[in-house]
Design a protein that fits this description.
Layout: E1 20-28, H1 34-41, E2 47-52, E3 70-83, E4 86-92, H2 100-107, E5 112-117, H3 126-134, E6 139-144, H4 154-161, E7 169-172, H5 177-193
Parallel strand pairs: 1-4, 1-5, 5-6, 6-7
Antiparallel strand pairs: 2-3, 3-4
Amino acid sequence: MSLPAFAASDAPPILRGDERTAKILVAGHFGAGKTTLVHCLSQIAPVSTEEVMTTAGAGIDTTDLPNKATTTVAMDFGRLSLTDDLVLYLFGAPGQPRFYPVLQDLAVGALGALVLADTRRLAETYPILQLVEDLGLPYTVAINLFDGAPVVPEQRLREVMDLAPETPLVTCDARDKASSRDALIVLISHLLTLTPEPSQ
């Protein structure tokens, strides 16, 4: 089975009710770009639970990211029609360890996960990958291309993240609609390879 051509329009289509739907988890460490990606791709007004970080999180959450003043405390939600008959529901999970139970809850019913990572903070990706694997979700890793982040060869990234050969690894810019869409398409294509063809 191959993925049909991507829907050309960015306008939110009127759903007929007979579309195939898929729940996709957008995961990653704190500051990996999950909220940015969901907001960039959603064809509806996204639901966001971004809150301003305060001193109450000092010593608990990473706070040394430049220009990072907010954090997701529950989830981000968006909707994207990949084709006329395939609708994705995107659930962005918070990345801090204290919110891992939220990630686990959001993963229920998800077909797969797009795991965002920043090469400046790869070590923070490892527990997220372990959690996604423990949940039994197939996933694709998308290296978010932050300005000034080091460029790491793919083979080295696969080694340090201990990725299975069949796990897709891509790069994307979560601020760019086409780039983020392409990363999602890689994930969906990967999920299709894991789904047996229907018997004739």
